[in-house]
Design a protein that fits this description.
The protein is α+β, with helices and mostly antiparallel strands. It has two helices and three strands.
Length: about 100
């Protein structure tokens, strides 16, 4: 499976940069978020962590990664953000000096 099948070019470049950085520095990366479009066509937001695997002699042999689907989490965060904006608009409209509560 090639990740480039599931992401746009800019995201593929970002993923490559992350893996390349992990390879060069041996520093794990956690919380790397990006958007994929699987064969089903329904896009998903994912959160990835990646670390370098080494053999007993310390030579890099591959990567270990974990990818979690955070689509629902992102959707809920967006809903909360929108409701907070609506609440703020209502608050400021009620506090506005031009609004009148007098008959």
């Amino acid at each position: 499976m090639n990740y480039r099948q599931y992401v746009d070019r800019a995201t593929a470049d970002r993923i490559y940069q992350v893996f390349n950085g992990v390879y060069k520095t041996s520093t794990s990366v956690k919380g790397f978020e990006y958007h994929i479009v699987p064969k089903t066509g329904a896009g998903k937001d994912v959160d990835a962590s990646v670390s370098l695997i080494r053999d007993p002699e310390g030579k890099p042999t591959g990567f270990r990664g974990l990818v979690r689907d955070i689509t629902e989490k992102k959707r809920m965060e967006a809903q909360i953000f929108e409701s907070q904006k609506m609440e703020q608009r209502l608050f400021w409209r009620e506090e506005s000096p031009t609004s009148s509560t007098m008959p």
